[in-house]
Design brief:
The chain contains eleven helices and eleven strands. By secondary structure, it is of the alpha/beta class.
Length: 401
């Protein structure tokens, strides 16, 4: 059993519940007799290499409790891609602060960072335990049924499309269509989740486009026309990462981040929503809206799902429990035991199975044409996102004279 200090980091994009995971780690570490001090990486691994650490063990109970309902990344985040030259510096800081427990909260790139740091420490003989806590609104991590942060971002998207769809329905004589773009580079979980907004056939959304299927412009325009002829307006949801069959992003962006991921909508390209808007306007001459929320859904704490917040905290606490058992090189995974009643368990997953991999949605979660979701996906989603407002519709009782 190792005795020493613990360090916690947050990386990548924030979520509405990532700080609940942070609170879970802090509280569990403070109760562990073998952990003396609890530090936080200020701005991720970048800040860590500069010895920019926060003393988390001396935070007040009010602050720790408040973290559970505070959005974004309280420690400050980073998207630094660790290179081989960084490892000696990382090891130097680990030794300087006698850090024996490393916890990082993040997505697949973050899991890669922990995996590589933990492996490097093993090769140098420095005893340290590294555990990952899952986080990503994209829900594309392997080894877990879903990721903390996804349900809250999905809930935010659903509410946006639900309310925006009512607006589009009532304004159809002004704007004949609306396009809602959501984040999701490699997987369509967040775009697909908006299907929960639809109660009746004519409700938004009508068409959903995700990275799991090649985008075909002619088919898109044909599907659009069919929906328009039925309802007089069309609500479209698209993931930022949709591509043509040859792999070209619909956004046509050529800018990449440090992990060689395409920066959708960045300089050098445009947004998917705007491109789809142009296609429709040029083909039909219609006027329409495009709505792009970007990172807003990552920090909508007022829309957070309670189940999401609870599970995020548990993942942090379970990570410490796992580390204290002497296990290293793992991520805490959420495993669904039952839908009705909804129950989950928490199990370790090898970091090597998670790092730098994106989990797409299963094909059976979509309808056969790929433009809407199946009942199987809705069954998966319902326990996570909570309930939604039931807005009324006027009955179409025309006046005869």
């Amino acid at each position: 059993m190792l005795n020493g200090n613990a360090i916690i980091g947050q990386s990548g994009g924030p979520t509405s519940v990532i700080n609940a995971s942070l609170a879970g780690v802090i509280e569990a570490c403070m109760e562990a007799p073998q952990i003396d001090k609890v530090y936080g990486m200020h701005f991720g691994i970048e800040g860590f290499m500069q010895k920019d650490l926060l003393d988390l063990g001396n935070q007040s109970r009010t602050i720790i409790e408040g973290l559970k309902k505070t959005p974004s990344s309280a420690l400050g985040s980073s998207r630094h891609k660790v290179i081989n030259e960084d490892f000696p510096k990382i090891l130097e800081v680990l030794k300087a602060f006698n850090i024996r427990y490393l916890f990082m909260i993040g997505g697949n790139d973050t899991m890669d960072t922990i995996h590589r740091v933990e492996t490097y420490c093993q090769t140098t003989g420095y005893e340290m335990i590294g555990i990952g806590i899952p986080k990503t609104v994209d829900n594309d991590l392997f080894g877990t049924d879903h990721t903390p942060g996804f349900a809250s971002a999905a809930r935010s998207n659903i509410l946006n499309v639900l309310q925006g769809g009512i607006l589009a329905r009532d304004m159809q004589k002004v704007d004949q269509f609306v396009i809602y773009q959501t984040i999701g580079r490699d997987a369509g979980w967040l775009a697909a989740a908006t299907a929960m907004a639809r109660k009746d056939e004519e409700d938004a959304p009508h068409l959903i486009y995700t990275p799991e299927f090649d985008f075909e412009q002619d088919k898109f325009l044909s599907d659009f026309e069919k929906i328009y002829n039925l309802y007089g307006f069309v609500s479209i949801v698209c993931g930022e990462g949709i591509k043509y069959a040859d792999g070209t992003p619909v956004s046509a962006s050529r800018t990449k981040d440090k992990f060689s991921n395409v920066e959708f909508g960045a300089m050098g390209g445009t947004s998917v929503a705007l491109m789809l808007h142009r296609m429709i306007s040029e083909k039909f001459g219609f006027r329409g809206e495009f709505q792009i929320t970007e990172s807003l859904i990552m920090s909508a704490a007022d829309r957070a799902a309670e189940t999401d917040r609870t599970e995020a905290y548990r993942c942090g606490a379970e990570a410490v429990k796992l580390a204290l058992s002497g296990t290293t090189g793992k991520m805490i995974g959420i495993h669904r035991e039952s839908n009705t009643p909804y129950t989950v368990s928490y199990k370790p997953v090898p970091l090597a199975d998670v790092a730098v991999k994106a989990r797409p949605m299963p094909k059976n979660y979509f309808t056969s044409n790929g433009t809407f979701v199946s009942e199987a996906f809705l069954d998966y989603l319902r326990p996570l996102v909570g309930t939604f407002p039931d807005y009324i519709k006027l009955k179409k009782q025309a006046v005869n004279h």
